[in-house]
Design goal:
Elements (H helix, E strand, L loop, with lengths): L1 H44 L10 E10 L19 H18 L1 E10 L5 H10 L4 E5 L2 H13 L5 E4 L16 E3 L4 H14 L4 E6 L3 H16 L3 E7 L6 H12 L7 E5 L18 E4 L4 E3 L10 H12 L5 H20 L4 H8 L6 E2 L5 E4 L6 E2 L2 E5 L2 E6 L26
Helix pairs in contact: 2-9, 3-4, 5-6, 9-10
Length: 421
């Protein structure tokens, strides 16, 4: 009788799991069908008309540079060639929601400079043609080049950085025409450190890769550790060149042996070795930093404060998950739209002043309004601390206070800043 009951229970569990799986597939197909129906309805309605005569049109240029395709850690990793594009499109749609009632029109111009073309030549043509608002998916060096060119030519423009996390762009190399949407490395390091302090994981083993960006993030982590009274028990550089897909089980335990620590903190922005560290270290300690538990401006599992709405809208439009660059592009265009709406004009100088005036605030699906720091044009914002498939917490952590904004407890505060416009 017991055997019969056990067989029956296992059989029932099997069919229940199969049924659940079939139901999930059915729901997925229903969702796809619903998306198609919504798209048809939107197309049948056509373009919405303006309730008021168009007073002016603001064109926002999305400027990016073609890159050589890098090697990937896994063949499962998608290589995205359209990051930022759909974020721009959604933000333009959101800007027009209000714009149609007040007579403010918005459109975008997508420019990708090919490998054979010169970025400065193309940018010079754009500013000479009268374009004044730019969302730039470029690296640190390229952002400095176009910023300096516009300042040299005395062109009053706004460049929204949606890619680079370089601290130097917010400090010694800051520019008056450059605004930064992504968190700096200093902000990411402080956000992560606050959580580790809260958990009392105060003894670090820091592992740094050989890339220049790895060293820069490692420096930010060390500065943050000093600021929050964290002890770095050991610091090592990863200089192995072997294929870790075959040697990880041998190399990593030996590399991490003989050290007592609470957390292994890794700085490997390209993901060359960091993904292999979890579950292979000598001690059963967690991995944080650029892999494992990571600080990010956006994550696909973020669902609070209306983020589900944004995630679903983006997925319906693009067919994929929203990345940090997509999110930054959306914030950049919405920030410009919010400022222009409040001002009632799109004069660049007026918009620039308003963005850092203290009056500006944008709802960005993070629980509080985001705004720009006047001293270095960095967007102050909460930072998501996430595992690969789940949200863990949001920094700044509870208990960190500030005379102006708790958001300024992460990153370079005004008294520390070396930025001089």
């Amino acid at each position: 009788m017991v055997k019969f009951f056990l067989v029956f229970f296992l059989s029932f569990s099997f069919f229940e799991n199969v049924f659940s799986r079939e139901m999930s597939i059915q729901k997925l197909e229903e969702r796809k069908k619903a998306d198609v129906e919504r798209q048809k309805k939107r197309e049948s309605r056509g373009l919405k008309e303006f309730s008021k005569k168009i007073e002016f049109t603001t064109t926002i240029v999305f400027l990016s540079k073609e890159r050589e395709i890098p090697s990937v850690l896994s063949n499962l990793d998608p290589i995205l060639s359209d990051e930022g594009f759909y974020g721009i499109e959604l933000a333009i749609e959101d800007n027009l929601t209000t714009g149609r009632f007040v007579g403010h029109d918005y459109n975008s111009k997508m420019i990708q400079v090919s490998l054979k073309e010169d970025l400065l030549t193309e940018f010079n043509e754009l500013i000479n043609s009268g374009f004044r608002y730019f969302v730039a998916d470029l690296n640190e060096k390229e952002l400095l080049e176009i910023s300096n060119l516009s300042l040299k030519k005395n062109k009053n423009i706004i460049i929204m950085n949606v890619r680079s996390k370089a601290n130097s762009l917010r400090e010694k190399n800051c520019k008056s025409n450059l605004f930064h949407i992504p968190p700096s490395r200093a902000m990411l390091a402080d956000a992560l450190t606050q959580y580790l302090v809260k958990k009392k994981w105060n003894k670090w083993f820091l592992v740094t890769g050989n890339e220049e960006n790895d060293k820069l993030f490692s420096d930010a982590l060390k500065y943050s550790a000093k600021k929050f009274n964290i002890k770095i028990k050991e610091e090592r550089k990863w200089d192995y060149e072997a294929d870790l897909r075959r040697t990880a089980q041998k190399e990593i335990p030996l590399f991490t042996k003989g050290i007592k620590y609470d957390v292994l903190v890794v700085s490997d922005e390209k993901g060359i070795f960091g993904e292999y560290l979890p579950y292979r270290t000598w001690n059963p300690n967690i991995v944080v930093g650029t892999q494992g538990l990571t600080p990010k401006s956006w994550h696909r599992t973020h669902e609070q404060w209306g983020a589900v709405q944004m995630q679903n809208r983006f997925r319906r439009t693009s067919g994929r998950w929203m990345t940090e660059t997509d999110y930054a592009s959306w914030v950049a265009v919405r920030s410009l739209g919010e400022a222009i709406t409040r001002l009632g004009n799109n004069n660049v100088e007026d918009v620039k002043k308003y963005l850092v005036s203290g009056k500006f605030g944008l709802g960005a699906y993070k629980g509080v309004k985001v705004s720009f720091r006047s001293w270095n044009h960095q967007l102050r914002q909460p930072i998501l601390i996430s595992a690969p498939r789940s949200m863990v917490t949001v920094s700044p952590q509870e208990g960190y206070i500030h005379p102006f904004s708790e958001l300024d407890t992460i990153g370079v505060d005004k008294p520390e800043s070396t930025c001089k416009f």
